[in-house]
């Protein structure tokens, strides 16, 4: 007979299973709402007369926004107690509302369309969701990643301040829209909208504090949490590089810039989904190393190719006109340099950023050469133990050798 006030183990398990089931149901309900909003927005954009080029961008934008809700629902399905999943579900609904409100308002106000019912409400909802999405992604995500809890209790103050400032920003938006609609004064609306924008800018110190807590978490974390944070950093870096590269080198209205921006948006939820959902994480260090190698390799090969083409054209301009020789020579030179440059860049990156891995590879290379020359089993055993100790640095190493005279011989270090 169980004591009063204390739940039996079977009841606790049933309540836990019910809570898990309810959490999964809520997560997939949120996912369904976000998918319905994004799909409706995509249909409205096509009804607005978008061409094939715009259609590809619209579909890719919808997929990028859908990644947030999908990753959130998957995280909650496996780990209902992880706040990151709920953050992504909320952002999924927020991006769905923003996408739908933009499409609905645009369709109802241009090309001579009659003003559709509820356009003002949807426009208001879209503007309201922006402060929430920004606060969730720029403050709460780095503050709570990857386990859904702040680093220490003291860091909760950052979350509380962000929640208060976001609530004030949303409240100011309501004052701007409702007060402007009642008074009919455009200056009133503009004033309060500007106050809300200033309040959003004031969240920048909270964003910096959240990323500082993430850096401290990385320093104190164990291997798995470090791998998860590296995946987040990898996604953020790709996002930033694509966005900055698009702004600096491409026209804002070009199809390529629109596609790259959509791909950049996808990088964040996908990298976080991999970091939380995968039990055996991929070797992110190897992925980062390969990314650095091929980025530098591509840049060097492009510079080499352009230098050779223009240099040879300048040299041969008095001899031949429109000769394909510079292009052919440059292409062959770049092809010949590919492997040697890749190996050189890989060695530089391994020495600079992955020194331990580089030293281990050098030790293993020396050990492989020793295997061909050493015939003394005792010396070889000592060398093998030394190699294992140097490369893997375990607390204890044991080597068992099987001989004909005795079944087992142990040599421990």
Automatic annotation (TrEMBL):
Keywords: Membrane, Transmembrane, Transmembrane helix. The chain crosses the membrane at residues 26-46, 58-76, 83-104, 124-145, 157-178, 198-219, 231-250, 256-279, 291-312, 324-341. It comes from the Bacteria. This is Uncharacterized protein.
